[in-house]
Every structure is written in C-alpha cells, then in structure tokens.
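Subgroup meeting minutes
Present: P.N., E.W., G.H.
Scribe: E.W.

1. P.N. recapped why we're keeping a running log of single-chain structure predictions: easier to compare across weeks, and new members can see raw inputs and outputs side by side.
2. G.H. added today's entry (261 aa).
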Amino acid sequence: MDGATPFALELQDLRKSFGRTEIIRGINLAVQPGERVGIIGPNGAGKSTLFNLISGRFAPTSGQVLLNGTAIQGKKPFEINRLGLSRSFQITNIFPKLSVFENLRCSVLWSLGYRYTFLKFLSGLTDANERATELMEMIQLDRKRDILAMNLTYAEQRALEIGITIGGGANVILLDEPTAGMSKSETTRFIGLIRSVTEGKTLLTVEHDMGVVFGLADKIAVVVYGEVLAFDTPDAVRANARVQEAYLGSSVADAQAGGQV
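Output recorded in log:
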C-alpha cells in the first residue's frame, strides 16, 4: 500500500494448524479504519482461533497480521495492546475485588505514560482519575462508582469490561460475543452502548445473535471451516446464496420475519 493509508487491520493468507489439523486455512481480510465488522460462522468455524491469532494469544503457522500497516504476528498480547489493539473475551474479564472506578483507572495508566512505580499515589494522578471518570460516564456506570465489580449485574460487568477494553486508548477493538447471556432488552441497550463507546474506532466482533450482527456491523465476514466465505455489507451477505446454504439458512428468514434485520 505504497503511499496509501494502511488498513486498520489486515490479514494476509493467515493459517493456523494444531498438529495435522488445519483450523485457519488461508484467511485474507482487510478492514478500513473506523469500520465495524461482524464475524459470523457456525460452531467450530475458527472464529475464536482467529481472534486469538489477531490478539497474540496464538502465533500463526504462516501468514501475516498487520495492525495499521505493522506486522504483529508472533508478538505477545501486551505488546500488541500497546500498539493499539484491545480485546474483550467471552468470559467476563475484570478485577472483581476492585471498584468500578478502580477497574477503569487501572486500564488507563499505561496509555497515560505511567509505568511500574510504587512512588506515586494513584489518588494523586489527576489525568488518570479524570479519564476513568469519563469512561465511567460513557459506559453509564457513574452511579456505581464505588461498587465492587463482583457485585454488579452481569450486564453491568460486561459494560465495565467494554470500558476497560477501550481504556487503554486502542483504535482497534475486538469484542468476543459481547451480548452473550443477556436478555433481549439488555442486548438492545448494549448495542447502543457499543456504538457509542467505539465511535471512530475500528471494531471487530464475534457474535451469534444475528439481530446484533446485522444491526451493528458495516460489513460482515462469514467464516466457514477456517476460510472467509464472504465479506460484504449486511444486505449483500443476507442475499448471498452460498452464505445461506453454508450457514445462515433459516436464521436469516427467521430474523427477517421477526424484524431483526
């Protein structure tokens, strides 16, 4: 991409094998800055493995992962995070015995230039405290400021994790099934929250709820047997006969009938 703005995230012939079993089979994907991409596919398609490759939990067998034009494959997760990519997980990952405010303050320290030191009192870090307060308001937990994270409702804990995920200032955000386990009303509110807090950022999300995917994503990547079967707008994916045959099928018809897509 000589002289051009690099993609926010680009996967080039990405492959991953465990022993003789090839899970990711040559995925190519290019995501523009600020684009929201939903990744869907049947169970066992390789979606979680793909997220693990992008975020550094797994090293690829071959191929490249480019973040803003820089190759990151093989780097450790914390190194990738510091280059501008952050991820949430299927299982809520927070500090349960810290308050909402303390969780968020921890998430912003490195991006504000604070390193490993015991010479500073956190209460005196004005910029960190202000940023944590802003995040708390963004995720609508400002009334729960001093509540321990373990005492929040499930939906509130997921919201807190979103706040932690964006707290480090990353421009590329990966969300792994962010609405899993939520009620329909909680899901509706959470979609709005995700849209708000990721405004202007690049978003990739793995999600099984078709209503969430088609309502949130600018583009959808359909992964089947470790390959990208389609990567297009929601309308184009919905109308793709190969996608419906391989994965969506009655799910799309049901969603259309229910007014979800």
